[in-house]
Amino acid sequence: MPGFDPVRDAVLNSPVTRSPTLPRHHPPPSTPAGTIPHNTTAPTAQAPRRATVAALLNDISPLSPSSSFHPPHPPPVTRVRSPTPQRPLSPPPPPKPKPLPYNPRRKTPAGSVLEPLTQDEMYFFRTQPGTGTRRLSKRKRSPSYELPDNQPAAKKTRDAGLVMNHYNARPEIGIDQRRVSRIIGLRNFNNWIKSVLITRFAHPALELSTVVDGHGGRAGTGGLRGKVLDLGCGKGGDLNKWSKARIKEYVALDVAAVSIDQARTRWESLSRGTRFDATFAVLDCYSEPLARGIPRAKLAQPFDVVSMQFCMHYAFESEAKVRCMLENVSTYLRRGGIFVGTIPNAEQLLLRLDQIPAIAPELSFGNSVYSIKFESREPRPLYGHRYSFFLQDAVEDVPEYIVRWSHFIQIAAEFGLHPLYRKEFHEVFEEFQEHHEFKPLLQRMNVVDANGETEMDDDQWEAANIYVAFAMEKR
After folding, report:
1. Residues 259-286: what's their mean pLDDT?
2. Which domain of life is it from (predicted)?
3. How far apart, in whole angstroms, are the C-alpha atoms of residue 62 and residue 48?
4. Whole-structure pTM over 0.85, yes or no?
């Protein structure tokens, strides 16, 4: 037999399988395992068959699943893995230091406490260095009054800051420059409207005032009578009107510090014979109580008249501001006192908004002297219905808010304020243009000249008639 024959060795070493037709027999316990017994009972037993070479070469097992024989397997290969190096243990983190207790110590001796400058005042001192230098030496808080302990400092919204910065930045141009303004006719007409409103409704309330000078009022003595609160006084444009009304006491507030200083300067320029006692303060009367900016002694006796000209609509940013504004008006206004003002006409503004075509690129309308731009058509809330307003030589795209009159009188009634009068500016003109007192006033205030001609063109007339005048009484 040759020493190496692969075919022969594969056949001889192949596992033995039995014929599937023969019954399965197990050797008795005494028979050594792996041998075939000689005393088989199958008379036609066939010889065991070996697997074919093709099955071996193609890795196809011919064995039956029930066969007790198994092909030999090569010995398993044992792989020896190199030991994994152990990582060194990291040291534990150091303990966090305990925070030191808050225990500040004074390094300098305590002195007088100075009231910090507001943003408005800092702006004023930067732009008016002469006046600012004089005022810096008087920054100690006045002992005449104290702020309420339970009133937190008011937070200015973004829109309130825009309004304040706008009016702080408006320069005082003087009478001569105002006369050449593009809207001089509109300015004169608006002043005439306010004069009619003050004379028609404020004067009777002032006549009944108990606030009088030492001469017992104006009853034949030339004395002064009455007390006025001007909220949103601006640069003091109505000081002459109150001077002609011969009031005794005047308190003026505005959110813009520069405007307040200009109003104070204008009051100082009044003749001494007609100059009333005046108090000026920087205060957002829509977010803060009057007691925060006005000495308590000045608020002890109620006012006869409260005036808000071209500014009340700023309060309608939110219900909280409206209620704060009405609280300031009603708390310090006597029973029978008058609340007068001018506001934009919400009905007309919303009507003009509805008339803008759907394909228009912007929700805006106006003419050569004014423009109004809404942010959206809907929604139309009672508070915070915002639009941007521009008026040549006066207002530069300042955010304003719709004042729905029907809702306003409902909420004002909660504060004891009830309407007496509300008319659009053109209706006021039609009512009083032939009045024996107000017709001559048209010429004296340069609304018309001696020939009855006016500097108001159609664009200025349209701008004037987006406003209404109103008067309310506290009951």
Report:
1. 91
2. Eukaryota
3. 13
4. no
